[in-house]
Amino acid sequence: MKRTTICAGTLLLAAVIMQPVGTMAEKIAVVNVETVIQRYEAARAAEARLEERAQEYSEEHEQMLQHYRGLQQTFETLRDESFDQALTEEARRNRRNAAETKMREMAEYEQEIRATATQRRQQLEQQRQRIFTSLLDTIRAAIRRQAESENVTLVLDASEVPGSVSAVIYHQPEHDMTDAVIDRLNATAGLQHTEEERGIEPVPAPEVDVDIDAERVFP
């Protein structure tokens, strides 16, 4: 499935202003927040967990489809037997009634599959937002601490967003704190997973394409 990613465009707001610029001794630095996220171990771990849940739900979804196919096969057998002239009229009528019951069961289960897919999609989006909002808060805090340690008064985001211009057009390499921030983040003893990561929800299934054409059930 599509990998879970963070839109760099939303990260331009991650510029951290340390204090008002009021002196000539101000010091400005840049951080590529997009690169930080790509190399931040906790962010990669969160993405891996989302992918694991994606695989788990894909398997669950396939099981639901298999159950639906079983219902469909049973229905088709009953429908065909309802036209079998080798059976008595009563037997054919019973098969027809059973087929109609099975058709309603199929329709109800189809709705269950679709409702589950919609619910999972909403849960995934909410979970993704919680996880990466938490991660971004952690990144901002690391940038702030690094800036304070280097007496930086202003930090700008140097991420390059497709279709737009970076907040930083040019900077000298010595003004880049990206690697220092990454080292600070990844130096945390023991990868601390957020509550959101531990309680991550399954991801949405693909769109369900199971239809019942009632007009074609019984010729």
Largest sheet: number of strands, sense, barrel closure: 2 strands, parallel
Q: Strand portion, in percent?
A: under 5%
Looking at the overall shape, the CATH architecture is 2-Layer Sandwich
Fraction of residues in helix: 55-70%
**Assigned CATH class:** Alpha Beta
The stretches of 5 or more residues where confidence is low (pLDDT under 50) are: 1-24, 194-219
Q: Note the run of SSEs as H and E.
A: EHHHEHH
Counted up, domains total: 1
Short description:
By secondary structure, the protein is mostly helical. Helix content is 56%, strand content 4%.
Describe this structure in words.
This protein has 219 residues and is mostly helical. It has a single domain (8-202), classed as Skp domain (Protein Binding, DinI Protein, Chain A). It contains five helices and two strands; from the N terminus they run βαααβαα. The chain has a two-stranded parallel sheet with strand order 1-2. It starts with 27 loop residues before the first strand and ends in a 21-residue tail after the last helix. Residues 1-24 and 194-219 have low confidence and may be disordered.
Q: Features of this protein?
A:
219 residues; Protein Binding, DinI Protein, Chain A; two-stranded parallel sheet; 2 strands; rod-shaped; disordered C terminus
Would you spell out the secondary-structure blueprint of this structure?
Blueprint: E1 28-31, H1 33-39, H2 41-81, H3 89-149, E2 154-157, H4 178-186, H5 195-198
Parallel strand pairs: 1-2
Helix pairs in contact: 1-4, 2-3, 3-4
